[in-house]
Design a protein that fits this description.
Elements (H helix, E strand, L loop, with lengths): L34 H7 L2 H13 L6 H17 L6 H26 L7 H18 L4 H26 L3 H20 L4 E3 L5 H7 L1 E2 L2 H28 L7 H22 L8 E2 H19 L1 H11 L1 H6 L4 H27 L1 E3 L7 H11 L13 H18 L4 H28 L4
Antiparallel strand pairs: 1-4, 2-3
Length: about 450
């Protein structure tokens, strides 16, 4: 056992008062042992015990989502042997990207314990701003994209201001934004109703550009694996320097190996010569947003403050955190990612239209965050929930489309999956409270 798991024995004896005025030596102190060290020293048995303890305590993490993805893959592959083909995987990746980026912003809002109902309308405004400036007024492509994203940021900050400073509930503020910005989108589009995406433009390439060189896909997989391994090693070194238990090298190697298998398997499928066009640019951008957002959420003071405000706003305020600033910033972030995601939707639909951001966009974005494991009650969740949840949704839609299922059935199944995710979240939180771990 390592030195961290022990405390030096002491020979000091505590006096004990008794009726016969005599003293007796106290029981020998028990060495303090960190249970996390015992888990790792016991090997597979220890990890299994820790896993079952977490499940009994309601700490499910991403387990339900991963199990769901495996079930979805098996069911639809049995129904249609092309479900896991290169073209099908590429479609899931591309269609997940825009809505997934919007879901990242919703994850931050949900971490506050709030909701943003305006994200679809903000996406539509972002697409309309880009189209009007770039196509109708001849603005530079990059400048039009920048202004579109900044417009979404401003709308989100406006929602946050009314919520944080005026005290209007976020539900009401963003519902008003949902209605108001939908009207603004239609007004900006004018009588045309749609503006086609210029050939070769930035927005067109968002979902239509693929890195055909196989080195791109395998290179991205290699970078992802190395970055993951480096993060585990750095985290372990920091924990050891602070005198805390850290993952042994064998566990780091196992985790890295699993991630490597998944990453290179996806790269191999995308690089298949039949049906796929290579690595989608949309997937690269989505992963870039996830990595940056995850770093902000877990490694910065701002991210820790978001979790603190979502867990207990009053306690966060007394700890010196500017709750209003955090709330305004989070809603601005949601608006920025909403407008950016709107450009992906416009790219997929061939241009900006009055329907961009409408329909079931809002439902899918919120569902992705919740299905991925972000709690609706605030203070608990991960940015990668957006990726997992959106893959679940798009996999269901892709599979149902391939077997010719009607849209009505797709809506019902997606709604049932969302309800199941919320039920799991509620039961998990109640179990944690019962186990004293909430």
């Amino acid at each position: 056992m390592s030195d961290l798991a022990k405390t030096p024995e002491t020979s000091a004896e505590a006096p004990r008062v008794s009726t016969d005025k005599t003293t007796a030596p106290s029981a020998a102190p028990v060495p303090a042992v960190d249970p996390r060290l015992l888990v790792r020293e016991e090997g597979l048995k220890g990890y299994w015990s820790e896993f079952t303890r977490k499940v009994r305590g309601g700490e499910l993490g991403s387990l339900p989502v991963l199990v769901g993805l495996i079930v979805i893959a098996i069911v639809f592959q049995l129904q249609n042997s092309n479900f896991l083909s290169a073209s099908s995987v590429a479609n899931i990746a591309v269609y997940s990207s825009g809505l997934g980026i919007m879901a990242v912003g919703i994850v931050f809002v949900l971490l506050l314990g709030e909701i943003d109902l305006s994200v679809g309308s903000v996406a539509g405004v972002g697409a309309a701003v880009w189209a009007v400036l770039n196509v109708n007024h001849g603005w530079n492509d990059w400048l039009a994209v920048l202004v579109a994203v900044l417009s979404g940021t401003a709308l989100g900050a406006l929602h946050g201001f009314f919520f944080a400073k005026i005290g209007v509930p976020a539900f009401v503020v963003t519902l008003a934004g949902f209605l108001g910005w939908s009207g603004l989108q239609e007004w900006m589009m004018g009588g045309e109703g749609s503006i086609n995406t210029p050939s070769g433009s930035i927005v067109e390439n968002l979902t239509n550009y693929f890195f055909e060189d196989k080195a791109a896909g395998y290179g991205l997989a290699l970078v992802a694996v190395l970055a993951y391994a480096a993060s585990l090693l750095v985290d372990g070194r920091r924990r050891r320097s602070a005198g805390l238990p850290a993952r042994p090298t064998s566990e780091i190697a196992l985790r890295t190996g699993i991630v490597a298998i998944l990453c290179f398997a996806v790269a191999y499928v995308l690089n298949e010569p039949s049906g796929a066009r290579g690595l989608p640019l949309a997937l690269v951008l989505f992963l870039a947003v996830l990595v940056v957002a995850d770093f902000v959420a877990r490694r910065t003071a701002f991210g820790r403050q978001v979790f603190a405000v979502g867990g207990n706003p009053e306690a966060a305020r007394r700890a010196g955190i500017s709750v209003d600033r955090i709330r305004i910033t989070v809603f601005a972030l949601s608006g920025m990612l909403g407008a950016f995601g709107g450009l992906f939707i416009a790219s997929l639909s061939g241009g900006a239209t009055k329907s961009v951001g409408g329909g079931n966009t809002l439902m899918l974005v919120i569902a992705a965050a919740v299905i991925g494991g972000t709690s609706l009650f605030g203070g608990r969740g991960k940015v990668w929930s957006a990726l997992l949840g959106m893959i679940v949704i798009q996999s269901i839609q892709q599979g149902l489309n391939m077997i010719g299922m009607a849209n009505a059935i797709q809506y019902m199944i997606t709604g049932a999956v969302l309800l199941a995710a919320v039920v799991i979240d509620s039961v998990s939180r109640r179990t944690q409270k019962t186990a004293g771990r909430a």
